Amino acid sequence: MENENNELNEIRIEINDSTTSFNKNHSITLKSKTETVTELLLLAEKFLSEKKKLLVNIS
How many domains would you assign to the chain? Predict the structure, then answer.
């Protein structure tokens, strides 16, 4: 679904993990004139999920 108003959609997600001394904080910001906020959220979720898998495999 394309953004019909051609406005800039933006999302920013920050996940702060203060349970360990190792900084496991993650942040992602996405901006688009063509993607809807829903589509940006799906992209962010996929990115953060894959980042989490990578960190688990490294540990």
Answer: 1
Residue 38 has pLDDT above 60, yes or no: yes
Q: Is 53 domain-assigned?
A: yes
What token pair was written down for 2?
A: 């394309």
Q: Which pLDDT does position 14 carry in this prediction?
A: 85
- pTM of the predicted structure, to 2 decimals: 0.67
Residue-number span of the structural domain to which 43 is assigned: 9-58
Q: What secondary structure does DSSP assign to 25-52, as a single string?
A: -EEEEEEESSB-HHHHHHHHHHHHHHHH
